[in-house]
Amino acid sequence: xxxxxxxRFTKETDRDVYLFNASISFDKRLYRQDIEGSIAHAVMLEKxxxxxxxxxxxxxxxxxxxxxxxxxxSLTISDEYEDIHSFxxxxxxxxxxxxxxxxxxxxxxxxxxALDMKMYVRGEIIEIEGLLKEFQKILLxxxxxxxxxxxxxxxxxxKAQPVTLAHHMGAYFEMFVRDRSRLKDIYERMNTCPLGAxxxxxxxxxxxxxxxxxxxxxESPTRNSMDSVSDRDYVIELLSAMSTIMMHLSRFSEExxxxxxxxxxxxxxxxxxxxxxxIMPQKKNPDIAELVRGxxxxxxxxxxxxxxxxxxxxxxxxKDMQEDKEGTFDAIDTTKECLIMFxxxxxxxxxxxxxxxxxxxxxxxNATDAADYLVKRGVPFRDAHGIIGRLVLECIEKGKxxxxxxxxxxxxxxxxxxxxxYEAVSLKTCVEKRLTEGAPGMAVMKKVIAxxxxxxxx
Length: 458
Description:
The protein has helices at 15-21, 24-27, 31-47, 53-72, 84-96, 109-145, 165-190, 209-215, 225-230, 233-260, 287-310, 326-348, 353-362, 367-375, 381-398, 407-413, 421-424, 427-432, 442-457; strands at 150-155, 158-164, 192-193, 220-221, 267-268, 350-351. By secondary structure, the chain is mainly alpha-helical. It has three domains: 15-105, Fumarase/aspartase (N-terminal domain) (Fumarase C, Chain B, domain 1); 110-204 and 227-352, Fumarase/aspartase (Central domain) (Fumarase C, Chain A, domain 2, Up-down Bundle); 358-457, Fumarase/aspartase (C-terminal domain) (Ribonucleotide Reductase Protein R1, domain 1, Orthogonal Bundle). The strands form three sheets. Strands 1-2 form a two-stranded antiparallel sheet. It has a two-stranded parallel ribbon with strand order 3-4.
């Protein structure tokens, strides 16, 4: 059992206790951050005269060698070590001798693990934000290709008013705009460096914490050493942001699942992103969308777990905080995998434009426009609402849409109807005349698409 402590103890830790306490099985994924942080610490120690140039050079060369060997597979991380920090330091000392023992001068595992986790989270924020951007590019392509793909818009899962597929996809584009903004906010807020905070009260060594922070790409050092080692707000914020991303993906999944059903038939999922049934040969299941919807709960669970872990902790560091890693790692992996799989599914998906348009026409999505037609001819809106309600009822009884009714049939409901009603309630007219900002009209959508292109180019 390789540990960085033990001088005060007179007997070995129980093996089961050691295994329960150890984190090497999961925090080994932080090896790059641990080595990068250690290199910066060594460079700063040499600058401050705490290490000689020869000692610094040996440490930096040794750490770089460890990183290279881990990445080419010639060195593996052994579970005999308590955590990634003890593995790196022990391996370094075995490689370069006593100079390796000086690396930990002026720091504690408390600020070291806080640094590693911050650097890891910071990098993952960039990756997730990048995936969202790639997804937005796919959505933008779909929007550009479907400015005149008419479909029903829904409220309460009931057909409401006609929109376009471009407009519908734009709603998800906007959700991802907010998601990316949240991630950027988290990055800016968390970008302070805890290295040099020590166990909780700083150190008597003359460290240059601002220099260490600059070497590692942080805006500044953290301002309170107790908060430095006990802060996991950035983990909670990322878990919250990922939960929102997954909620958006889950809503999207629900729609794809519905649209893929025989009853709707709006989309055809590519064979590569769906599966069949072991017993029913006709089945083509939307498994990717269903799994994304299901995995959303997994990310929510990580957020609730972290909030619960942190809620009762006094300052400063407590071993409970070791629980910040496994759930967060899993939530990050899950979110990234879901984004990748979902965007690939969307990129290969076929939209059945004819079915969508037919559904909008048969679903009386133009009923509001029919009422507006009457209002423009002097009928009070409340009366027009009642007239169109009776018209819809008659259409249902006859199995027709509004535009399939003859003028004679329409006039039997209200004499105000005239031949121009058919143009007024066509899906194209219903959509195109909606030109307020944020509406689905062609002119509005073209302007929005141009703005989205500019946004993605920034």
